[in-house]
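Side project, low priority. Logging it here so it doesn't get lost.
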Amino acid sequence: METLLSHDGTDGRDIYGTIKPGSTEHQKESAKGFTFAEVGCIQNRNSKVTCCYFSSDGKLLASVGHDKKVVLWNMDTLQTESTPEEHNMVITDIRFRPNSSQLATASVDKSVRLWDAANPSYCVQAYSGHTSPVMSLDFHPKKTDLFGFCDNDNEIRYGNLNTFSCTRISKVAFYFEYLSFIPDAGIKCLELWNMAENKSMTISAHENIISALSQSPVTGMVASATHDSSVKLWE
């Protein structure tokens, strides 16, 4: 919690930069014929990024963090849109609803908010029943009107988007179909595991803590979010 609540030194009016070509330092890494390269860097000039996530069709990448808003990157045009700062504190997690333009955010302000990337100018729905910061959330992969979220007191709830009603429960488990390789993150490095070929490689990726990873289910591109105020793209 200390990392999430630490002061950024920002005034809440951070400006997002454009996507940049991958740096020469990380242009290409290989291990026994298995290659992985940085292809771009999305720079948030001042604010730590806590999470990022691709939409099901791979066309959008959403990032969130200490600036208390969602930034949506169109992966075809590289244009951005952002939500208003309706969260009062750091956003801790974000997920797209499967096969939908809707997405949900969790926050230290003890709330969960629902948005629509098709019109991100306002929050569709909000829930604030938790008594401590909400740290993570996810949608059911098949029953996509259901989602689960947990707080800093280890209380887990699930909700129904049709009514946005929530029920307190003790355990929730959603199961996912994984892609052919699995990215993992350390403090500043990426650990890439090729499950089909039983190979791995470690890449020096960022200058600060890597807070989240997301992989496009369509292109296989990997996004890494970090406290150095950037999101890097890899493939």
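Brief comment: The two ends are 31 Å apart (CA to CA).
Revisit when time allows.
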